[in-house]
Amino acid sequence: MTMPPSLDETAPGPPLEILPGQLCGRLSFPDLFGRAAPVEIEVGIGKGRFLLQQAETRRDVDFLGLEWSLKHLRVAKERAERRGLRNLRLYRADARHVIADLVPDASIARLHVYCPDPWPKKRHRKRRFFVPETVPHLERALAPGGYLHVSTDVREYFEEILEVLASRTGLLAAADPLFTDEAARSGTHYEEKYREEGRAIHRASYQRPAGAARHVGGLPS
Ligand SMILES: C[S@@+](CC[C@H](N)C(=O)[O-])C[C@H]1O[C@@H](n2cnc3c(N)ncnc32)[C@H](O)[C@@H]1O
Fold first, then answer.
1. Which SS3 state, helix, strand or coil, does residue 118 take?
2. Cα(74) to centroid(ligand 1), Å
3. Residue in 115, 134, 153, 201 to alter for ligand 1 test, most ligand atoms within 8 A of Cβ
4. Which residues line the pocket of ligand 1, CB cutoff 6 A?
5. pLDDT level of residue 4 (50, 70, 90 thresholds)
6. Is 122 exposed, middle or buried (0-12, 13-18, 19+ CB in 10 A)?
7. Is 18 helix (H, G, I), strand (E, B) or coil?
8. pLDDT tens-digit profile of 135-173?
9. Domains and CATH numbers, the chain
């Protein structure tokens, strides 16, 4: 296997945060990170606990964090700056838009979605991340063999996620060798908080089968 080129840790790096208006059409990850390396995305990073830890320990992978809350993104950015992370970019945006419209086909090695907002009120359900309009783009964005990891403390949302992934995608339930034991699992801020409150965390992992590329519409890659 060819290793991705190392990032120069001493040279001044490109800005950590992608600013509004900076992007035009589909993302180019080699342009964004300055090298060709596997890319992983986390949707709804909160203050970045999981993503920063991954970026720090897996320097041969590039990480894009999507977060809607400006307040949370700022905290994650400050923490990433303190740690001098070069293989990380943060983008304040609606992750549903980014995944559907900006991420090229078959470009992502792993997608992480931990404790997505459950929007418990019935009239707000359409704001959920896992909806029939979005999930086909998760499959489209994943490289063949790529993984999707999901967790939630809300049983009803978990069942809905399993159902919508089964009915709207060809993703298959699969264990990811990188995250097999509990110690290597996500351990996000909210997962820990809910666990301390005695709530169960429901988890699922999926893999995009190797095979023909899937195009779902939107901008061409
Ligand atoms: C319950 S928190 C979970 C944070 C983190 N994943 C964790 O497990 O600690 C959900 C996060 O997703 C963010 N979020 C919700 N909807 C989003 C969207 N459409 N696009 C980007 N971020 C979103 C929220 O601002 C919040 O920070």
1. coil
2. 14
3. 115
4. 44, 46, 66-69, 72, 94-96, 114-117, 129, 188-191
5. confident
6. exposed
7. strand
8. 999 999 999 999 999 999 999 999 999 999 999 999 999
9. 31-207 (3.40.50.150)
Burial of 175 by CB count in 10 Å (0-12 exposed, 13-18 middle, 19+ buried)?
exposed
Which residues face 172 on adjacent strands? 207
Radius of gyration of the chain from its Cα atoms, rounded to whole angstroms: 17
Q: Is 117 a catalytic residue?
A: yes
Atom of ligand 1 nearest to the CA of 113: 6
| Residue 5 alpha carbon to ligand 1 centre in Å | 31
pLDDT 10s digits, 35-61: 999 999 999 999 999 999 999 999 999
pLDDT > 70 in the chain, percent: 88
> Taking Cα atoms as reference points, which of 54, 59, 69, 48 lies closest to residue 13?
59
CA–CA gap between residue 136 and residue 169 (Å, rounded)? 6
